[in-house]
Amino acid sequence: MSKEAQKEKSMILQKEMIDGLFNDLANAKELGKKVCYTFIPGNLSELIQTFDMLPVYPEINALQSAMRKKSASYIKEAEKNAHSEDVCTYVKCDVGMMMRGNIGPTGLKIPEPDVLLLSYTGCFTFLKWFETLKREYPNAEVVMVHTPYQENAEMTPEMIEYMVKQFKKEVIPKLEKVTGIKYDEEKLKGHLRLAAKAEDLITEIFDTTKHKPSPIDAYFAGVYYIGPINIGFRGTQKAVDYYEELLKEIHIRIEKGQGPITPEGEMKEEKYRLVVEGPPNWTSFREFWKIFYDMGAVIVASSYTKVGGVYDYGWRHNPDKPLESLAEYCMNCYTNLNIPQRIDLLKKCITEYDADGYITNSIKSCNSFSAGQLGMMREIEDSLGIPVGFIESDLVDPRYFSYSNIKNRLESFFQMLEQRKKMEKETEAV
Amino acid sequence: MKDLNVLIEECKKYAFDLNFTRAKDWKEEKEGRVLVGYMPIYFPREIIHAAGAMPVGIFGGGDEKQIIKGDAYYQSYICHIPRSIMEIALDKHMDHIDGFIFPSICDVIRNLSGIFKQQKIGKFVKYMDFPQNFLPEIGGVFYQQEMQHVLKYIKELNGVEVTTEALNHSIDLYNKNRKMIEEIYDIRQDYPWRMSIEDVYTIVRAGTVVPVEEHNEILEQVCTHIKEDIGTPQDKIKVVISGAFCEQPSLGLIRAVEEAGCYVIDDDYMLGSRMILGDIDATTDNPLEAIAISYINQSQYSSSIYDVDNPKEYRLAKIVENRGADGVVFAAASFCDPSLLDAPIFQNAFDKLGIRYISFQYSENINQFKVIKEQVGTFSDSIKLWEDEPVIV
Question: Using the beta-carbon criterion (under 8 Å), do B308 and A339 form an inter-chain contact?
Fold first, then answer.
């Protein structure tokens, strides 16, 4: 763990983008920019840019706090204030951070919101979270966008119309009121065009795991790759530039036959290819990742990298139908898919990326992901005959990350994979 | 008129019957009848009734169902109700129920709808996405479309095309139903000793699994009985229960709160049966619109409805004031996100408003109440013995 992590140009680019955003946020008043709190799934980045606002993502603050080992004390702070041990730790971490002065991950103060833009997609807790925030920030304008759930595995015209009506009648007028900026559809279309480009690129990036060895880890490194597209840069040239650079670097690795880069350098031998369902644990992220790369396991696809949008089936933002496109985007995020849709998507990943195994990382405080995971796992095991593994942890509460338990379970799982590979080889030989 | 105890016993038989026998009998009485199960919190049962089907409330297995299969579907940190519903389904207790509706309460119930789809339980599975937009021309229209989907599913099973007259008739029946339930609560506000909350709960819950016409007859008789000066007053404080709207506490726990010294004069146990406050207009040419508008304008506060323009803490405080309650008991099912995420909002507000409260968590299958009883008893004593200030809202 003492080794310095290797940094590529794309990593430096990303750091500059994120530092720039937090700097702008710290100076929002001086810059004359309005601040918009919103969430990753169903984030309306292009619309936020159209109104020249700066986004704040409370769940990003929470996970950043966890990676910086600050979440435990924030959670305790919230629990002292009647927040239950049983609920989402993102919420408690965010509330605790607010109670301690709202100092963001880069050490700079995060400004209060001018707008609470709740594009409520795929997670019921978001709704409750914003009810809490509204009480903390009574002067903020609240904009609620209800995203219908894909209960029947479809986005119907009436669902799209419902959302478009909300955009036209409530969202846009309220954003115009707060920012004093008139809605400019041409500007939005420009951002949507750039969004589609970034979406093409990120799809291509995650598709490179088809190579053997896979040049990237689509979970542990994947969570960094989705940063720019998810936290406010989708729809900008900066995001396109970042993904072009990243893809270039990945292509070089493919040409050289190299595996993924880990915090301790290039992974030398790819022994197991896995698909992971569920978010990662953030409090012990490096230790968690290390268990995998030490065993030669690479994640070739993960559901978590699709929380901010599912692009696998070719869906893209469409400047020709700007508001309809935003509606479809919101409805098409991973946690807004029904359970059979999630299963189909995971099976597609397992098959297309030739995975050896499937792991569920079940998160204690995230019912949006966790409720139903056991049934999904059983269905995947039965229909594909693939070995499955199950571990439990939490998003940002270190009390629920048990290193030895997780390591034991994963070691048993890898032994099972090893045994299976051996048997397959023997069968082939016969 | 039947004796009150006979009525209560009858309701008890219906309310906690995990085989839903009364609904099954109703279905078998006539060919082509359809049963539609619905989960908590609220569903406009009027439309099922108008479509010639019968709504059946599914509120989990309580403390009567041992969970074996259900645990294989849900991790330990997920509330109890989805595992008991799975257990009931997989043990074929609900095989005679044709379709299932999962109202939008939380992520767990939403994802349970997906598991039902995956397991192919029932002839249809509908996740009912209640609008979180409260403009009649936006959220109201969307809600009507959602109801139309349910009607389409039922029509595919029984061929019934719903008419305006049928819908208005059903609305009228459920208006009467809600009115009589409210009458029981209104009487108990002043005379809580006339009927225990355990019995009120049993009677209201029975209404979710028997035809509304029969339930209205029961309610009519119950109301007549408790208008009489029956029972003996006891030295107890009056409380409102809040937070127990989905996974239901066991009957023993409901009883324990009153036994520990608190008359429960209002609650959200069976919130769905009381969700709409006042009548829905039963005289319009567009009854679905009337139902949608009533949901938007006349709903009780709920942890599942975005409340930003109508803060729930003040609505609950108003209930406390109107009922003349001494305090609030927050009872949340363990791991219930909507209820537990609301707790800090309520408690912070009540600290400022000077409303006394306690809170505890339960699971539908717990039947050891000693600790809760002690907690509630202490709360009651602390108010009875040392405080006499009225609640000021």
Answer: no
Given B78, B115, B341, which is nearest A125 (Cβ)?
B341
pLDDT at site A2: 46
Residue B335: list chain A partners with CB under 8 A: 86-87
pLDDT of residue A50: 98
Token pair of A286 as six digits:
């490096």
Chain A closest-CA separation from residue B127 CA (Å): 6
Rounded average pLDDT over A182-198:
98
Can you give the pLDDT at residue A1? Answer: 43
Check A340 against B114: CB less than 8 A apart: yes
Q: What is the mean pLDDT of residues A382-410?
A: 96
- CB contacts under 8 A, B 52-91 vs A, are 72-75, 77-78, 82
In order of start, what are the domains of chain A with their CATH numbers?
9-181 (3.40.50.11890), 189-429 (3.40.50.11900)
Is the predicted pLDDT of residue A348 greater than 50, yes or no? Answer: yes
Residues of chain B scoring pLDDT < 70: 388-393
* Separation in Å, CA of B237 to nearest CA in chain A: 24
The SS3 assignment for A130 reads: helix
Torsions phi, psi for B102 (to 5 deg): -115, 100
d(CA B39, CA B56): 9
Query: How many angstroms separate the CA of residue B344 from the nearest CA in chain A?
Result: 5
- Options 3.40.50.2000, 3.40.50.11890, 3.40.50.1220, 3.10.580.10; CATH for B21-162 is 3.40.50.11890
